[in-house]
Amino acid sequence: MLHPAVQTAAYVRELAEWNREVRMLELEVTGAVWLHNMSRRSGQALLERQESGEPPLFFRENREMLKTWLQTMLSEPPAPDLLWRISQSPLRPAPLLQDALRHSRKRTICLQGAQQRVFSGILEAAKCSSGRIHVVQGGPGTGKTVVALQLLMRLLEQGRSGLYTSGCAPARRNLIGSIKEAGELPRGFTDTLIPLTRTLAPGCSQAEVILVDDAQRLSRKHKGIAVPDRSLPPALAALQRSDSLDQLLHASGDLVLFLDETQQVSADDACTLQDIRQAVRDHNRTHPGNPKDLIVHPVLQEQQRMRQGQAALRFVSGLLDRKGAAEDSLDAQESGFRVMATPRAVVRALEKKQAQGDSVRLCGGRCWPAAGQKEEPGGCGFHIGSGFFGYWPQEADQKTMPEGYLRVDSVQDIQGQEADWTGVLIGPDLVFRQGNVQTVWHKRTPQDWLMGGLQQQLHPGPAECQVADRIIRDTYRVLLTRAREGCFVWCADKELKAYLQELSGGG
Length: 507
Known about the structure:
The protein is an alpha/beta fold.
């Protein structure tokens, strides 16, 4: 849990750096923590973990001390309407953040072609009256996240308020981690990269522009949530029961949705362009005083991630489309697409690339259970054959894995990420039969909550089978498009492995 002093310091920083009224009145903002139902004895651990310079802690028996502290800090009574003015004040970035972003933008990546046209079009529209819904579509590696971050930086640089969120929470967290690790952008910038739940809070309607990456993961009430509530944390279950798309439409200002309908990797990923059009029509009918204009921008198609660009993306899409047949073969040498004999061979190939200074990631479809194999330590490891031992990171977060066990990222860990080289373990849920690539939904482990419990049903109906088929295909579409230089692939199904070797020139 977050230390209350750290949480309070964040509130203080947000008021001081983002509230225009506080800055115009040159108010000094400070904070304290009153743990009114906790004794100092039971809260000793909090005191031990408190850093110097953080807001002070007051416990249940410190009521008089808190009153004295408040009397000392609040020397003059505020104006009667001060709190109301602060609460109604629009969000504006601090001048220091704007200056830092101007300096950082000189070193940022340049947008190209359709990216620049989308970027300029959204900025120009944002200068006019608000109330527009922008939809930006594009496949994997076409620069949607890059455009979103560049838009956010430019808005903040101009002194306007913007917020970035992602329907894929791990992708947002990894993005924040990458920015902090690089150290090129100021601390205040990461405060604008917020969880989706925060964009649905009333206060965020003060933001002029909200940018939503991975918008295909926004929920709609009429879609029906297949994930059982008991399998999710309460906060996530409540969010998925809500109609997050419709709630975002009610926010004031502009809304920019970055959408990829080919990356719907869970039972609740069902937001499409058609849904957005319908949601805008419903909103305008029920809220005639706050109408929204829908702008659909040109689709981003230029591939910037994979070595062979559009050819590699067409190959993956052709392999995983509903017909299941790849349209084009792929040159293994040019594309870096290699089919390996065993999972250990995949690992050895990645280790060689890593030794050369390249970044690598190992990922796979969740077909191997992390529990039920008694020989595995703590029930969180899994093995493939006799030579590969791995673990899924979620199950191993609180455990120390012994030497020899390798982290294998599932789709929710790697979505929105990329590396120079990736290794992909294709499980028995994807096979090649009768000239087609087919899915086998019951081969997914029951622990894969992204399937929404579909793999545990004895007799799923046609609709459930169609959802499961889409999830499996889109899962491998994501996994196979994370690499900048090349991808090492192993298939559990021998026929699929032979088919991929044929398409890639022998592997």
